[in-house]
Give the backbone structure.
Amino acid sequence: MTLLSIRNLEVHYGDLIGVADVSLDVAEGEVVALLGSNGAGKTTTLNAVAGLIPASGGSITFAGERIDGKPAYAVVSRRIGLSPEGWRLFVGQSVENNLMLGATPLADRSRAAPLLERVYAIFPRLAERRLQLAGTMSGGERQMLAVGRALMSDPRLLMLDEPSLGLAPATVEIMYETLERLHGEGLTILLAEQSVELALEFADRAYVLQVGRTVMSGTASDLADDPEVQKVYLGMG
Amino acid sequence: MKKLLWPGITAVLLLAYPLVFTTPFQQRLGALVLLYAIAASAWNIVGGYAGQISVGHVVFFGCGAYASLALFTHTGLPPVLGMPLGIAAAVGIAAIIGTPTLRLSGHYFSMATIAVAELARLVTTNTEFLGAAVGLSGPTVPRTWLDLSFISSVPYYYLFLAVLVITLGITWWMERSRIGFYLRAIRDSEKAARSLGARAPRVKLIAYLLSAGLTSVAGSLYALMFQFVDPESGLGILISVKMLIMAALGGAGLLFGPLVGAAILVPLEEISNSLLGGRGAGLTFVLYGAIIVLIARFRPDGILGLFQSARKAPEKHDA
């Protein structure tokens, strides 16, 4: 069943075009990767789904319901979690406060405590540092916190913007192992990733974005073998 | 117990001040410190906790001062009764200007607030009902005790102290409420807070309205003590700047920051005024400019920030 469906999405920043024509589908339980170089429109697409920036054209449908034009708080309460680019943590607050802020959209507050336990079980490092200020943590820990915070809203769809950016290779590996496990538990994931190799290894399917348009799509293994991907995407060949 | 030590010492010092320092100059100085501490604490709610640097808060100060004295001028009622009118006007104006301007971020918000404040000053200067450029005065001789007109500054001192305690109480309560929690999140990263479902515009507006109402109270208290307001003393941009600097110097976003800032700046200004007299009037601006530079360069988190840097992580909350 299709969980998220984007059709001909258009986003403008004033006169600038952020995204010109993006269409994609994410099925329930699937991992989908958005590939593309800087400025291709990956972050813009994720932010538009999250309701952080308004779409100027096209449609975004989640679980059979149009969500484009809905404000961010309405989108996130439909259980779409975003771990934003650059983490955007509340650096002056403790790890635990950051996580609890992630529970904002929960209608039933009593669910926050078990979710917190779950996030601590997924990222034991965060449990060790629960009273530490977010701004004093390493890059890998910050990434864990950003993902953990998104998980606090108990999302059906988890969107990750560049989960490997700026992290040490060993940390990236731990991150992806964790994501793999969450996927195994049935979580649907849409991620933007610059590291093609990593993304194609992890994802079921992928879309390639180029100057704000979806130019190619396919299963991860097909794309990984396709020389065209290397050309469009890495500018090789 | 340790948590109550500093607030306790501060309370004792504040209560005892007029008994220890008995000259009229010192007592007036004490009252002024408290008055500005109220205004700066009110500013702190939106400027410090929410991180929305308003440079137009004098509009709300003016609401309070003008409501009190306009009520007296036109109806003869005691100025203190104008206080609720001032609060209503301030909250109303804040709702009107806050809804569009709080969508602006960073210095664009600051610039918009300056524009609104200057507009208010110019309109008032040309409004006969509000005394135009001449200003409005309070009762020349007190008619009843309700006029709250005293020769000594001591009654004002204790009145202002009571209002300051209420203001800080409200701030303290807000700091611990869900709203305060979101305000700090918005200050750290508005986009992240929004992506988590915090209704940032609404939370900021609530803080702005609360801050405006309390600033208006400070304006009314000013009118009670000085019995006079004109466009410069009630709506001049320097008052906005003072609120901002006092909060920033003491520690913006900290409960007692504005009080510390006021306790340093008000005496400094009074002393420099009395030393320099009329010739040095413009030097106050120079002084403020220098302080802004020094804070920005050396202590962006204010004087109290020095003591707070070793502070423990915030305690577990109950969301």
Notes: The two ends of chain A are 37 Å apart (CA to CA). Strands of chain A lie at 2-13, 16-27, 31-35, 57-62, 65-66, 80-83, 157-161, 188-192, 205-210, 213-219. Residues 1-79+157-165+190-236 of chain A form a domain with the Rossmann fold fold (CATH 3.40.50.300).
